[in-house]
Amino acid sequence: MTTQPSKDLETFPNPQPQRDYTIRIDVPEFTCLCPKTGQPDFATIHIEYVPNQLCVELKALKLYMWAFREQGAFHEAVTNEMLDDLVRVTAPRFMRIRAVFNVRGGVYTTVIVEHRDPSWPIPAVVSLP
User: Which fold has domain 11-116?
Assistant: First the structure.
């Protein structure tokens, strides 16, 4: 295989840095390993962010997600690791990651983590008729 998993996230310049807009990315085939049993855990990862100067490059993101496949991690730890890594490389105005894990032992787990740049004013909610 010429393509390998990688934790190296890449970015590209935001084409509209003067505008607040939301990028939503869904990763429906995320896997990692249970650190207690070594069994695979499956999840859908939902990423939402308001970029500042940089956007995450999607092929690099795919390889990044693939890199977790052999990593043992609790759901809470792996979700926070993703947020930390993505915030480190993109420095977004806002980012939310929602990790929806498949059932394990009759229990569903969803972990939601957020980052907000303290200098970014929260926009007002617009209600359209």
Answer: GTP Cyclohydrolase I, domain 2 (3.30.1130)
